[in-house]
């Protein structure tokens, strides 16, 4: 990876970590399309490791607001979804994975933009957890299904519940990827190198939570994610 490429990736991780620590999701949705353009080998392994780090930091800060029951039902669905996602990652070629990643981002943006609000009942939580497990393991983007089901929650409750779900769920995904042979030395090394960007993004979120409302940050995230997904699709089509 060139110096310019590393700076681009580090900035994407920095802002994505800030967004996840502020609204409860966004690490994969914002960073994955940009990171996949610079270094596809970092998706999903390194991004999932970084998501574990930021989720741990948020949960340590706001764990007292956790909706334990809701997170538990969602995690019950995450288990089969994680297995399916690991199998999908093994079967898909790199180009197919990149196009799927971009499609997931655009689909997630569409769902979260149209205002559909499913009720957080047990069945819906399990289904959303399964979808998040599949997408999160295969592409590192597991946020949209959970953001959709928990969008009535706000503030610390949203952030802590999402963080608890993603912490446990991401550990599941990382284990499944390790079994599938999708984690290597390069993946772990880049996690160590990019961890400071994640920590700085988390620190920034403490100030963003005070001065920037959730709607504005969400609109910013949607705009950047859309641009990244469209550029990624264009890159893959040009390579055909």
Automatic annotation (TrEMBL):
DNA-binding is among the record's keywords: no
Pfam families assigned to the protein according to its UniProt record, in alphabetical order: TauE (PF01925)
Annotated TM spans: 6-30, 42-60, 72-92, 99-119, 125-150, 162-182, 188-205, 217-238
InterPro entries according to UniProt: TM_pro_TauE-like, TSUP
Coarse class of the protein's main subcellular location: membrane
Keywords noted in UniProt: Cell membrane, Membrane, Transmembrane, Transmembrane helix, Transport
Subcellular localization, as worded in the UniProt entry: Cell membrane
Membrane topology type: Multi-pass membrane protein
Family membership noted in the UniProt record: Belongs to the 4-toluene sulfonate uptake permease (TSUP) (TC 2.A.102) family.
Protein name in UniProt: Probable membrane transporter protein
The species this protein was found in: Rhodococcus sovatensis
């Amino acid at each position: 990876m060139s110096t310019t490429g590393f700076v681009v990736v580090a900035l994407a991780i920095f802002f994505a970590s800030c967004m996840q620590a502020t609204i409860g999701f966004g690490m994969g949705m914002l960073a994955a399309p940009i990171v996949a353009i610079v270094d596809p080998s970092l998706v999903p392994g390194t991004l999932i490791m970084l998501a574990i780090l930021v989720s741990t930091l948020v949960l340590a800060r706001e764990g007292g607001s956790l909706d334990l029951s809701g997170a538990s039902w969602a995690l019950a669905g995450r288990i089969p979804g994680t297995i399916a996602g690991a199998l999908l990652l093994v079967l898909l070629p790199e180009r197919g994975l990149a196009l799927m990643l971009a499609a997931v981002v655009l689909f997630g943006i569409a769902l979260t933009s149209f205002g559909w609000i499913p009720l957080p009942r047990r069945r819906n939580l399990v289904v959303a957890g399964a979808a998040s497990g599949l997408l999160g393991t295969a592409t590192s983007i597991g946020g949209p299904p959970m953001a959709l089901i928990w969008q009535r929650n706000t503030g610390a409750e949203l952030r802590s519940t999402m963080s608890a779900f993603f912490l446990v769920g991401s550990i599941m995904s990382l284990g499944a990827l390790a079994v599938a042979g999708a984690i290597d030395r390069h993946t772990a090394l880049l996690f160590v190198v990019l961890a400071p960007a994640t920590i700085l993004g988390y620190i920034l979120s403490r100030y963003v939570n005070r001065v920037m409302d959730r709607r504005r940050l969400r609109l910013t995230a949607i705009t950047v994610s859309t641009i990244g997904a469209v550029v990624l699709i264009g890159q893959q089509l040009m390579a055909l």
